[in-house]
Amino acid sequence: MTELSRRTFLSAAAAAGALPVLPGVVGTAAAAGPPAPELFGPAAVTAAIVGMAVDGDTGYIVTRGQTPPKVVTVDLASRTVTRVDRLQRGDGGWACTVSGGQVYVGTYPTPDLYRYDPATGEVELLGTIGPSGGFVWCLTTAPDGTVYAGTSPRCELWEYRPDTGVLRNLGRVATDTQFARVIAADDTQVYVGTTPLRHVIAVDRATGAKRDIYPVELERAGSVDPIIATGGRVLVSAGGQVLDLAPDGSDHKVIAPPEPSTMIDALTLTPSGDLLGVARRTGALYRREGDALEQVDTVNPGDETRGIWQREESVLVGAGGSGVLWFHDLATGGTETLDLTEEAAVAGPDLVQSIAYDPGAAMYVGGHFYLTVHQPWAGVEPRRIRVAGEVKAMLPHEGRVLGALYPSGELISIDPATDTVTSLGLLGNDQQRPWELALDAERGLLLVASMPGTGRLNGALTLLDLETGAMDAHVGVLPDQGVTSVALHDGIAYLAGDTWGGGGTTPARPAAEVAAFDLESRTVLWRTEPIAGMASMQHVEVHDGFLYGVYKRQSGTWFAMDLATRTVVHQGKVSGYGEIVVHNDQVFAATNFGDYVYRLRPGHDAEQLAGPLVASWFTVPQLEFERGWMAWGVAGRQLARFDLHPRHRR
Length: 650
Prior knowledge:
This protein is an all-beta fold. The protein has one helix and 59 strands. This is TAT (Twin-arginine translocation) pathway signal sequence.
């Protein structure tokens, strides 16, 4: 094998010649330890963004997927990056606003609020405004310069006064949902939009009094998208249309396009008073004409739009979630782009979503908005294929790569020979987060395990006929549970459940189940709870009459269940949760919270084969085996090749 950019993975454990067992985890470490993995450079590169703010001719952007996040300054006139600085911690920033020439950024998974001085590059942590694992979802600046933030999981509104330096919690705005998702402010009120139940909470800036101004007759389930508060009106995007309300919620109008639209995820009012909006994924650009939305163009299709601003006389600037800034001339219809992924100072190693190995062809790595094609044995540089979201799961099939995307729930087919991406359809049925794909070659079916959107419990097993394109969705196949994994064996699909569903709602069951689904009759043969009280299963696999599984809640619990008796014959602990794979008649598990690799056997503690490694996964760790004992994975966000030969074990 020809190695490209091969580097030795150094850690204290490797230097000591042995791999330690994670404290509190029962396991057996290899006697001498395996060789350090071969490393081949960044597995995936990203410049994905969510938060962006504009101040005159300058745009300020905060990245996601890079640790810690970067604050990127862009000269919008010359369309060039002029400065890049780092925050102190976090995996990304969802929110950004400008007040008094200072830039304010909110981050996750620690919900920090930062102030950034673009003149000096100085970063100041103003406070942490929620528990670990929380998000600062949105920021806005009121006309007097006061900064407001919306958070999860406590659905709180926070206020920061730059003139006094006081940061204070204005309390929870809704008790039936966790996400204060979007925000706007005028002279007297702050307007907070929630998800996954729609509220628009108007908060009096002087008294703190709160009231819901979302019309009671409209659908509550779903998200409130961007809000604009100006000129004595409140404009709210929700359900692919725009609501025009008075600040007290009265006199509301529904402004809709002639045909149903996807989420309108960006709104702006131009200096001339025109309301413009862009729809997610389709890129439809709408203008308000009376009490309707008229499509006037298409911009940056296949992407999210994280904000739009009009500058110059007719140029509309848009922030694409993929890291593409677009400049659309409303007069001529022409569009130019600045791809931040091509900017070396902006782009960086991504947290990995998924991997797949096609023997002799390529290693594929899914990230934010791109699939990266690696062929290190051929001595060629990796290349990227753009896709419309996060590649949560994929598998090679007949020279193509079948993939499943978040957040659209779209199934795609990628031809690496031409870099062509073809849609196979949307999962629909409120399914948003695909977790795993399996191929039933006998019946020509692609099996998709998926989770619902936030606020819902029922996931699905979807069967896609690869010849006809027909989809057969079995929603609620595990009642009141998301479906996180599908393992195929002898015509039976074994499914793993998660009682938390899409999150943001109270579980209805005490424990996660596994189910056996007959692909011939398309019926559930049986369901059972392997271990009582365990709420969320992450992955299952079948080998030699046993069903192996690993739990997310309680994290790190693994089990082996005799399929003949449906009895758990062994239960143990690993570092966290991830995926299980069978290879060469052995069962392996790759798990997070240390990124370890284990061998699993009934009657034995988990045998540690590799780790700890620097965290690399946005989803959960995975392994893809070659023939023999070499396995592809990720270490320190780099594509890695592990030697898991038994000679390295006791």
